[in-house]
Amino acid sequence: MQALKRGMLRAIRWIGYSLMLAFLKIPIDLLRHRPILNGLWHDWQVASWPLRGQLLGLFLAVIGIGWLVLTLIFSLIYGIKQWLAQQDSE
Fold first, then answer.
1. DSSP class of residue 69?
2. Of the chain's two ends, which shows fewer C-beta atoms within 10 Å, N or C?
3. What residue intervals traverse the membrane (predicted)?
4. Spatial separation of the C-alpha atoms in residues 32 and 64, rounded to whole Å
């Protein structure tokens, strides 16, 4: 259970770092005259309200699924480390 909790916290931290880097990239995109967040911001601005809801739902679904996958990966890593430490102590 401890491996799962550590995996969940690590996944949240990983997603937070990724989002922070994406937002730090915005000024670089503006200086290079490139679309902000690969055009996602422009799509949000020109979309109607129902499409904005769909974009928001898609964004939240991608973040949620990514969090679940990262939680699974990190929990497996921590579980294996815990199991190997237990095997070494025996």
1. H
2. C
3. 12-28, 55-80
4. 31
Task: Give residue-wise pLDDT tens across range 9-42.
Answer: 999 999 999 999 999 999 999 999 999 888 888 8
Radius of gyration of the chain (CA): 19
In angstroms, rounded to a whole number, what is the distance separating the alpha carbons of residues 90 and 86? 7
pLDDT tens digits for range 47-90: 999 999 999 999 999 999 999 999 999 999 999 999 999 999 87
**Count of the separate structural domains present in the chain:** 1
Ramachandran bin of 34, using left for φ above 0, alpha for ψ from -120 to 50, beta for the remaining angles:
beta
Tokens describing residue 47:
């979309």
Range of the domain at 84: 2-89
